[in-house]
Amino acid sequence: MTTASLGCQAAFLPDLARVGEMRQTAGAFLRLCRVSEPVAGVVVLAVSELVTNAVVHGEGEVVLRITVAVDVVRVSVTDHNPTPAALKAAGPDGESGRGIRLVDAISDAWESSGEETWCEFRYARAAG
């Protein structure tokens, strides 16, 4: 038996207006793939945080990839900044520094190699 996966990809120049567009695109793709709403909600949140991080801290073109397999959703965001995303401590009044910490809290796994930051969500797909 083979394990099929579905994927979508979007490439764009850094612009904060694209964050909302990528959330909408991710939500529509996850509905198409029949990912349950609770899982899709946290995946869309991760998309928002990773895309925002790439737009604000990255360099050059941003590429969002979402792959849905039988039991895992993978979100990958790349840009041309070689510095890996890192967990940071944000002060109570800080306006940034929480995105990667949030991704760490809501995903089953995440990593950043510099140009690519990815996270995964494991789930049981609804039957039918």
Protein described:
The chain is an alpha+beta fold and 128 residues long. The chain contains three helices and five strands, in the order βααββαββ. The protein has a five-stranded antiparallel sheet, with helices on one face. It is globular, with a radius of gyration of 14 Å.
How far do the termini sit from each other?
A: 18 Å
Oligomer: single chain
Number of helices: 3
Percent range for β-strand residues = 25-35%
Mean pLDDT: 90
The whole-angstrom Rg is 14 Å
How many extended strands?
Answer: 5
Q: Structural class of the secondary structure composition?
A: alpha+beta
Give the SSE order as H and E letters. Answer: EHHEEHEE
Q: Helix amount, in percent?
A: 25-40%
Lateral arrangement of strands in the main beta sheet: 1-2-3-5-4
Which runs of at least 5 residues are low in confidence (pLDDT < 50)? none
Biggest sheet, open or closed, and with what strands and sense? 5 strands, antiparallel
* Rough outline: globular
Q: What does this entry show, briefly?
A:
The chain contains 3 helices and 5 strands, in the order βααββαββ. The chain is α+β, with helices and mostly antiparallel strands and 128 residues long.
